[in-house]
Amino acid sequence: xxxxxxxxxxxxxxxxxxxxxxxxxxxxxxxxxxxxxxxxxxxxxxxxxxxxxxxxxxxxxxxx
Length: 64
Hints:
It is a single chain. By secondary structure, this protein is mostly helical. The protein has a domain at 28-64. The protein has helices spanning 10-27, 32-47, 50-61. The chain is globular and about 30 Å long.
């Protein structure tokens, strides 16, 4: 059995959410999309698993 990587608890998710919201505000409306693309690519690199990234991408697309 493969152990799944540790996830964030609610407090960690709130911290990440706040940091992301602040960064989006800092980037401004003209650069927020570029910021999110760069962040996604950096996180994909850190994740190190293209298939897992694609699964997460599909999950993020749900219920938009």
